[in-house]
Design a protein that fits this description.
By secondary structure, the chain is of the alpha+beta class. It has one domain. Helix content is about 35%, strand content about 15%. The protein is built from 2 helices and 2 strands, in the order βαβα. The protein has a two-stranded parallel ribbon with strand order 1-2.
Length: about 80
């Protein structure tokens, strides 16, 4: 989703943007994070020196770190409560 395609980001939950520095959508991804912040949506942006979908390439250390960061983000911003005994 390009930030130019959405008229507003207000009311959205927190947003995490992970993008590679050689990503064709780098500028658009950064624009999404900026537009979300302007609309009052907490957002975080993480740029790594890789191409599109790099977090899926788990043999790359930065990819593993990105997945760990995404996991923490989801757990910190979800209503998930551990139901363990």
């Amino acid at each position: 989703m390009c930030h130019r395609c959405s008229p507003t980001f207000s009311g959205l939950p927190p947003l995490a943007v992970h993008v590679g520095s050689s990503e064709v959508l780098l500028d658009c991804s950064r624009g999404v994070a900026v537009a979300a912040e302007r609309a009052g949506v907490r957002s975080s942006e993480s740029v790594a020196g890789h191409a599109h979908v790099f977090p899926l390439l788990q043999f790359i250390p930065e990819a593993r770190a990105a997945v760990e960061e995404i996991t923490r983000f989801v757990l910190n911003h979800s209503s998930h409560q551990d139901q363990s005994p």
